[in-house]
């Protein structure tokens, strides 16, 4: 019997981010328009495995998903042990642009979720001309915090378990249990302090209120999709953001939470296929 | 059945969930859960109930308390809760619940407590 191989292939890419050498792990499948997928805070590129295994998508899109530095199989930069990881708007934007440049992607589409969605908004603000289309999942210009991130990294609380337990509530009750627990497993595998460091961008550095008004969707189309069960980035947060951006397309996804692509791949497919169909 | 009456069924619901008791096996703590105006004192021992006492107890020391309105618990315990009512932190974010005290045992066993406090969802909904 032939081995049951899935279509995605993983590689390591050597590239510099802001002059610092990095070894970045990414997976890809399909051919055609490059579609770069950004995982949520504290997780990794496996969240997009269902898109990469969907022939309806990969026949027209080259779906690439990379692990951010410090995440998944991408190592932190040399000397990481001497400091605290903190993602910023600048460092996140630089990592995405460096990845696209290193692979010589021609005006890729970028789709990101959660912090990935927030940084997609920043790409629309600052670098729209470099992209063919931008898709922000579970994104808003600002969200009200709902817990103290100090609990995420301390010796008396298991980091992986508390991260997973916190985000578990962001998954819709309708999502299949297998997908729910696979999504949570990735959170349990994060390095110490990494989720917390990602949220520095979310909470402290990445406030895009006012700035989203400058987005010009004639330069690059922008799509916002948010799950109704996401109480971190609520439907109201996304709708408020969309109301400030002429030409943006926005949709609230029923029976979906904060991790559409991994918590309920079949349901997400219903929403993302029509969006991808508009991109050429 | 009132929300407090539903919560009073917690020992039976936990007794029927061996997996939740397994996941809580490292946990022993005393906490207070308020269902609307009615306090419950939980003595958890190795993930199981030592005691669940309903009603006020004078000067009872607990590690932490979780309080929510009757309506919040009622919504939270729907078989399929509506968005914004489906998680403990969704309730605190919308201002209908609070957590106070030494939250360390809560955060150390967060999934256990979330699942424990959602157990009344398994009871039939009131007509």
Notes on the structure:
Chain A is an alpha/beta fold. Chain A has one domain: Rossmann fold, CATH 3.40.50. Chain A has helices at residues 49-52, 55-58, 89-102, 115-126, 159-168, 177-188, 194-205, 235-242, 260-263, 265-276, and strands spanning 9-17, 20-29, 33-38, 61-66, 109-113, 133-137, 222-227, 249-253. An eight-stranded mixed sheet of chain A has the order 1-2-4-3-5-6-7-8, with helices on both faces. Chain B has seven helices and five strands, in the order H-H-H-E-E-E-E-H-H-E-H-H. A five-stranded mixed sheet of chain B has the order 3-2-1-4-5. The model of chain B has no long low-confidence stretch (mean pLDDT 97). Chain A binds chain B through residues 144, 146-147, 151, 156-158, 161-162, 164-166, 168-170, 172-174, 228-229, 231, 234-235, and chain B through 80-81, 83-84, 86-90, 92-94, 103-104, 107-108, 110-111, 114.
Q: In brief, what are we looking at here?
A:
The complex is a heterodimer of chains A (280) and B (127). Chain A has helices at 49-52, 55-58, 89-102, 115-126, 159-168, 177-188, 194-205, 235-242, 260-263, 265-276; strands at residues 9-17, 20-29, 33-38, 61-66, 109-113, 133-137, 222-227, 249-253.
The secondary-structure element order of chain B is: HHHEEEEHHEHH
Major sheet attributes of chain B: 5 strands, mixed
Mean pLDDT of chain B: 97
Helix content of chain A: 25-40%
Mean pLDDT of chain A: 97
Beta-strand content bin of chain B: 25-35%
Shape of chain A: globular
- What's the CATH architecture name of the domain at 3-67 and 98-117 in chain B? 2-Layer Sandwich
Largest sheet, spatial ordering of strands of chain B: 3-2-1-4-5
Shape type of chain B: globular
Low-confidence stretches of chain A: none
Helix and strand string of chain A, N-terminal first? EEEHHEHEHEHHHEHEHH
How many helices of chain B? The count is 7
Question: Strand order of the main beta sheet of chain A, please?
Answer: 1-2-4-3-5-6-7-8
Could you name the ranges of chain B where pLDDT drops below 50 across 5 or more consecutive residues? Answer: none
Give the name of the CATH superfamily of chain A: Alpha/Beta hydrolase fold, catalytic domain
| Distance between the amino and carboxyl termini of chain A | 38 Å
For the report, how would you describe the main beta sheet of chain A? Answer: 8 strands, mixed
Indicate the CATH architecture of chain A. Answer: 3-Layer(aba) Sandwich
Oligomer: heterodimer
Number of strand segments of chain A? 8
